Amino acid sequence: MLSEKAFICPQCGAPVRGSGIFGLEYRSKTTIGGWPLVHIALNRRGVGLGQPIQIAKGVIAIGDVAIGLLAIGGVALGGITIGGASLGLAALGGLAIGVFIAAGGLAIGLIALGGAAVGFYAMGGAAFGKHVFSQYRHDPAAVELFSRILGDGIKRHLPPTP
Question: How high is the pLDDT of residue 91?
Answer without folding.
Answer: 98
